[in-house]
Amino acid sequence: MKALQWQGDYLLILNQTRLPFEEEYRQAKSYLEVAEAIKNMEVRGAPAIGAAAAYGFVLGAFNYEGDQEGLLEHMTEVRTTLEATRPTAVNLFWALRKMEDKLREHKNQDLEKIREALVAEANAIAEDDRRMNRLIGEHGNRIVPKKAKILTHCNTGNLATVEYGTALGIMRAAHEANKEIHVYVDETRPFFQGARLTTWELMQEKIPHTLITDSTAGYLMQQGKVDIVIVGADRIAANGDTANKIGTYSLAVLAFVHEIPFYVAAPTTTIDLKISSGEEIPVEEREGKEVRMFMGVRIVPEEIKVYNPAFDITPSKYISGIITEKGIISSPYSVNLLKMLVK
Ligand code: MRU
Question: Which of 39, 91, 155 maximizes ligand 1 atoms within 8 Å of its Cβ, making it the mutation to test the pocket?
Answer without folding.
Answer: 155
